[in-house]
Specification:
The protein is mostly beta strands and about 230 residues long. It is built from one helix and 19 strands. The strands form four sheets. The protein has a seven-stranded antiparallel β-sheet, with no helix packed on it. A seven-stranded antiparallel β-sheet has the order 7-8-19-10-15-16-17, with no helix packed on it. The chain has a three-stranded antiparallel β-sheet with strand order 1-3-2, with no helix packed on it.
Length: about 230
């Protein structure tokens, strides 16, 4: 999308007519509107592309509206292959704080319906570098675990109990991750604060759903959203 452009002040103050989710670029005599990562040019608009499966055996949208299922059968999680991901291609641009929300369900694993490692990735620089918060339905003392992945290597920061206990299998639970401008992140389970942790990566408005394990695990998720903080 290329538009005539004369006024430098208009460009600097973002008074251009680029569509939402587009980045304005100044070129001599014009300005260009390029869709941000995760958006596709559709005429004069930028349309969001959906979540994409990364390193998952199976990633499907069920017949039930808005419900996705990830069949994760990963290799041991000492390296990048241990993380099955449904990563949002969408990135919120020019933001210093944002919120990731999703509803998750642990369907089953090779060790039972209450065993799994499912959660959220955020501050996603790329598919091998991101912050992580995930939940373990099978453990009271290590209900959640937070950390980060650097060049595909998992680095654990903390694991502890949840104030209201772990989320059980075969039941929907809500995860909310609030990435703050001061590089701290607040992790919520069903609207209850679980922990606050320092982010390893700088603020990147991109996230997704993650299954971290070294065995078979089937999860479902719905109502995934990535929004700027108000």
């Amino acid at each position: 999308m290329i538009f005539p452009y004369i006024d430098v002040e208009e460009y600097l103050h973002k008074d251009h007519n680029c569509p939402p989710n587009a980045i304005c670029r100044n070129v001599p005599g014009f300005f260009q509107c390029r869709c941000a990562r995760g958006y596709t040019e559709n005429g004069l608009n930028c349309t969001a592309t959906p979540l994409t499966a990364t390193n998952s055996v199976n990633f499907t949208k069920l017949s039930v509206d808005g419900v996705y299922e990830v069949y994760a059968k990963c290799t041991p999680w000492s390296n990048d292959n241990g993380f099955c991901r449904a990563l949002s291609k969408v990135e919120i641009i020019s933001v210093d704080s944002y919120i990731v929300r999703v509803q998750l369900m642990n369907v089953k694993s090779s060790l039972g319906v209450n065993v799994g490692h499912l959660g959220v990735m955020y501050n996603v620089a790329d598919e091998s570098n991101f912050d992580v918060a995930y939940f373990r339905p099978h453990e009271n003392n290590r209900c959640y675990q937070v950390g980060y992945v650097v060049n595909g290597r998992w680095m654990k920061v903390r694991a502890s109990s949840c104030p209201n206990g772990p989320a059980g299998g075969l039941a929907w639970f809500t995860v909310r991750v609030m990435v703050n401008s001061n590089k701290t992140t607040d992790i919520y389970l069903n609207n209850g604060l679980v922990t606050s942790v320092a982010s390893y990566f700088g603020t990147v408005g991109r996230g997704g759903v993650l299954v971290a394990n070294g065995y078979e695990n089937i999860i479902r998720f719905r109502n995934f959203s990535l929004t700027p903080s108000v």
